Amino acid sequence: QVQLVESGGAVVQPGRTLRLSCAASGFTFSNYGMHWVRQAPGKGLEWVAVISFDGSDKYYADSVKGRFTISRDNSKNTLYLQMNSLRAEDTAVYYCAKGVVPATIGYCFDYWGQGTLVTVSS
Amino acid sequence: EIVLTQSPATLSLSPGERATLSCRASQSVSSSLAWYQQKPGQAPRLLIYDASNRATGIPARFSGSGSGTDFTLTISSLEPEDFAVYYCQQRSNWPPEWTFGQGTKVEIK
User: Fold this and answer.
1) B52 CB near a chain A CB, below 8 Å?
2) How far is Cα B84 from Cα A41, in angstroms, rounded to an integer?
3) 3-class SS at A88?
4) Do B91 and A107 touch (CB under 8 A)?
5) Could you say which of A44, A46, A100 has the minimum Cβ distance to residue B49?
């Protein structure tokens, strides 16, 4: 069965960096676009970034553009989110999510990880 | 940027009742709209994609309808496990940007 397991969440000070990982299993990881979606405490869902199945296309929400970088290692079935210049407003649970349609960035997500909490605070 | 507006913010119903949730887009999204269910402490779960197609394993009491700018998620008869927050979601064509509605909470009356 499809499994997505995020890791790397922590408490960090404003301006610092953090890298999140998402280990995927149960499907052909290299065939699917992958996303990061976050949820601030008590708030709704906010899409963060997407990477195409082969890593050639990447798109970001305006709120993280220039600070966050999405990447993937298809040989390790792992998705990453490098987060630089962190701000208090980046505090959230970060979910990785799988695109539905293979070989496209698609528009919706059929499997989600359990999330990892990032807290940005001095 | 396409904005999705969900209504109502909160729906107070009893088990067995029918729930009707609305999602309105600020411009046409054709039929490329999805619905998710999220329970406290859990990740969202895909319910409906392409406005009206149930995802794998989703019970038939969940149905979606609409196209263009107005969409509806209907739960025909609420089960205890259906009390949760529901989000609609779409993707704009260019630049690609994924957006969610602000959510509708279905709570026990």
Assistant:
1) no
2) 16
3) helix
4) yes
5) A100
